[in-house]
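#lab-general

N.A. 3:47 PM
ok so I finally got the sequence cleaned up, no stray characters, all 379 residues accounted for. can someone with queue access submit it? mine expired

B.Y. 3:52 PM
send it over

N.A. 3:53 PM
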Amino acid sequence: MNFVDFFAGIGGIRLGLEQAGHKCVGFCEFDKYARTAYKAMYDTEGEWESHDVRTVRPYDVPNADLWSFGFPCQDISVAGKQKGLQAGERSGLFYEVMRLLAGRKKEDRPKWLLIENVKNLLSIGNGFDFARLLLEVGGYGYSLQWQVLNSKDYGVPQNRERVFIVCYLGNISGREVFPLQRTDGENPCKLQEITQGVADSQRIYDGGGLARTLKGEGGGQGGKTGLYAVKVLKPYGSTGGVCGFKIAENKTGIASTCAARDYKGISRHNGNAVVCAVLTPNREEKRQNGRRMKEPGEPSFTLTAQDRHGVALLDENVRIRRLTPRECWRLQGFPDEYFDKAKAAGISDTQLYKQAGNGVTVNVARAIGERLREIENGL
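B.Y. 4:20 PM
back already:
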């Protein structure tokens, strides 16, 4: 199918749909940095392009079988002020897409809509905001299905729950997309795979691809090592005992020996180092709910545009460092070649982190796109 990519970001939905065999014919993205990355990553020549959905007229948008849009979540997310769809200036841009539908004849509307947002969309405003969305979209002749999908079930080690809504112009009966099955019933990708092979002339790596030094990135009091010491609060046996660690800033700036002084409870796991996800690795203290470190084998925390993420390498020593922008893009399912194109376009690390946090996981979009293709092919 041909599709138009609204609120395109760095094209997580686009890339997933393209991998599933669909073709993008146009896109709309407001953020100039995301737009620069997007145009560097994809062949957009000849496609319809807009920078502001508020200025688009209904028949400016080219005819397409599908419109996709992960509209802004700032007013819906539990991390925001939760103003909701109607009162929220950013999330209220959802209604701009509805305006475009309203301005087109029914026969010129897309056959499918694919909508993505945070899980809290289902419950914000005691559920009335989601009810308004269903009634709004349904009023233009669409029947809807939705499911909360977690990125960790589709081939990337990231715990990221998002609600995906599929809308069909007419009766969706017989064309159901959901429930969507997990990839091979399990997550085939591990955090170790995400952190492998990220190296340049400024970084020195362990055999597993984990940095001993990260020059030029955060560290203890000007040390700029990117590594932080870990205090072992108490032994936790031979299972790793991640909850027994406390992040402590490396105040000496020593890069190569940043490690815990008590190695009790650190499992070698048959001689192979264990990699664990860490939240806000560059701060000794941070007020937050939940854990700072994951257990061995757990997926990473949900990437966001605000939080910083890291990994802990557990062997005889304990070392912690921030994830690189490339690794954050990998956690969203982007192949390295797409990251390289964005980086070459002059996008700063700050923006690359932000773009990963705001993105849609490519693998999930691909799974939906493959199901849509099966339906269109009558399978």
